[in-house]
Amino acid sequence: MAKQTAGASHRAAPVHTDPEDVSVLTALSALADPVRIRLIRELADSAVWTRSCGSFDVPVGKAALSHHFSVLRGAGLVEQRDEGPKRVNRLRREEFDARFPGLLDLVLRADDVE
Amino acid sequence: MAKQTAGASHRAAPVHTDPEDVSVLTALSALADPVRIRLIRELADSAVWTRSCGSFDVPVGKAALSHHFSVLRGAGLVEQRDEGPKRVNRLRREEFDARFPGLLDLVLRADDVE
DNA sequence: CCGAGTGTTCGATGAATATCTTACAGTCCG
DNA sequence: CGGACTGTAAGATATTCATCGAACACTCGG
């Protein structure tokens, strides 16, 4: 067998937005949600490309979860890649931080969600 | 006549929240609104205690405006004081920046609102 | 080729909230 | 005191958006 990172997905590739093209308003709106904050925090605590969408501990169904990831992609916060039947994620730390310095750190550092 | 900064208002004093008591989620939610971003930016460009609530160039009625200032107070972003019939404002730069370093700068520095 | 697993899409629902209109409560000036 | 001005409060409306359930699409392993 050759590849296990199956590069030949026939599925619709997820639509990504470059952080450079994201407005402050979009970025803040994406981060102003408790579920998405949890996703980002868990993602930050995991190795890159190791977390599939369904592997997060959030109290919502998979439809809502799919929606949240769509918002995060649209804000340039998350990158996704198909790996077999799963869709694995990566937090775009450097790229997002270059566009909005300190913003991601604020969300990750805070100990409260309230 | 003694004082022109009339400290004896018989009106209900505005309720303020210390930035230290504000959660990240509350802060982000308060900032994730185009009208409130404009208010904050105009406020940042003006001298302290010079802008009354009605003096801002935003496309909403005064009732909605009053609501927005209430949200900004609740997020520890704005301080208000009664001065005669007017209510003048101050951006709590240092205090808010101590709680959320860099966040206010991001909103003020960005050239887009989209 | 079937079945389990994973994620998206669609339509509907419900909650949060931004807004307006109207009414009211103060402050100041004549 | 009465009227102009400033802002708040309350109620109604509308829009946005988070959520769910169900149906669908794709991948992989028997």
From TrEMBL, chains A, B:
Keywords: DNA-binding, Transcription, Transcription regulation
Entries under PROSITE patterns matching the protein: HTH_ARSR_2
Domain of life of the source: Bacteria
Ranges of residues in domain HTH arsR-type: 16-111
Protein name: Transcriptional regulator
Lineage: Bacteria, Bacillati, Actinomycetota, Actinomycetes, Kitasatosporales
